[in-house]
Structure to design on (112 residues):
């Protein structure tokens, strides 16, 4: 039996990207790989979704970026959290936990 992929829930891409960058700068492919690895391949972020989101977060001041070399020696753009990005990550995590706890409360309610 294979692993079933789950589409990203609306509003989760930003916190996933910010969390992926919370410990160290990463390039786009490494961000997508980190998310896939941490979710045991349940969530996969496609390039066509990831890169526009990275540019949007950079324009919003949540990410900084610099050019460097990836693990294979190729030129890649590395993204890192700004102080504003760290604050936004804290907000996003708190909001997610409140919302998911509320959904859990409803789903755990006995029918009848």
């Amino acid at each position: 039996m294979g692993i079933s992929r789950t589409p990203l829930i609306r509003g989760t891409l930003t916190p996933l990207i910010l969390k992926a960058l919370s410990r160290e700068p990463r390039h786009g492919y490494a961000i997508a790989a980190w998310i896939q690895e941490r979710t045991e391949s349940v969530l996969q972020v496609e390039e066509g979704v990831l890169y526009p989101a990275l540019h949007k977060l950079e324009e919003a001041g949540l990410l900084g970026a610099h050019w460097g070399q990836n693990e294979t020696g190729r030129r890649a753009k590395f993204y890192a959290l700004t102080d504003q990005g760290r604050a936004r990550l804290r907000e996003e995590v708190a909001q997610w936990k409140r919302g998911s706890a509320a959904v859990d409360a409803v789903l755990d309610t006995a029918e009848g």
